[in-house]
Specification:
This protein is 13% helix and 43% strand. By secondary structure, the chain is mainly beta. The strands form 2 sheets. A 6-stranded antiparallel barrel has the order 1-2-5-4-3-6. A 6-stranded antiparallel β-barrel has the order 7-8-11-10-9-12.
Length: 204
């Protein structure tokens, strides 16, 4: 589990195919940036752009993870050498929950329809698939590329569910969200509580 509070900006240093078959995954070597790896053990989880990955090897300032083809197909930002990535270590039971409960399981991809400065902040608008949109609510939580954010508005339409987020300067500065542009895809994870509520209300 994670909180959606990004603690470091890393960089994918190397992408190595794990086989020649079309369904083969890749091994990533990630420069941890400012992420403290001192207490990270092999087998621990680290969220990369919102996707939970298992550490299989580490050095003082980098770590390796294996990413399946399924994960590559369902996410963006994990297969590009040189790409900057949001990083967060797994939540400990005694940690402060500054964001919301995040599983690190990407539910789908959204498309940025607007990213513009508004006063000192930025307005981020995203169009999500309808199957994800039903879980989004005004003042509810959503994870975008691993960042816990608050939904400011929701509008359902034929193209999907459009929702907006206000990003304060700090969030823009310390995450990869600052590089977003209209038309970019983003990893989305819906609120865990909303998922369970939907299941309970639809179970007879």
């Amino acid at each position: 589990m994670f909180t959606g509070i990004v603690t470091a900006l890393g960089r994918i240093e190397k992408v190595m195919p794990l086989g020649q078959e079309p369904e083969a995954g890749v091994r990533l070597t990630v420069n941890a940036g400012g992420l403290d790896l001192a207490n990270v053990e092999l087998g621990d989880s680290i969220a990369i752009q919102g996707a939970c990955m298992t550490v299989i090897q580490k050095s003082a300032n980098a770590f390796d993870v294996d990413v399946s083809r399924e994960s590559l197909n369902k996410t963006v930002g994990l297969g590009d050498a040189g790409a900057k990535v949001n990083l967060e270590k797994a939540l400990c039971a005694h940690d402060r929950l500054g964001g919301h409960l995040v599983s690190g399981h990407v539910d789908g991809l959204g498309v940025v329809s607007k990213f513009e400065r508004v006063g000192e902040s930025h307005e981020l608008r995203i169009v999500a698939p309808a199957e994800i949109g039903k879980y989004l609510a005004y003042k509810g939580s959503v994870t975008v590329n691993g960042v816990s954010l608050t939904v400011n508005s929701v509008s359902d339409g034929a193209a999907g569910c459009a929702f907006s987020i206000n990003l304060i300067p700090h969030t823009v500065e310390v995450t990869t969200l600052k590089a977003l542009a209209k038309g970019d895809q983003v990893n989305l994870e819906i609120d865990l509580i909303a998922r369970y509520v939907e299941r309970m209300t639809n179970t007879k």
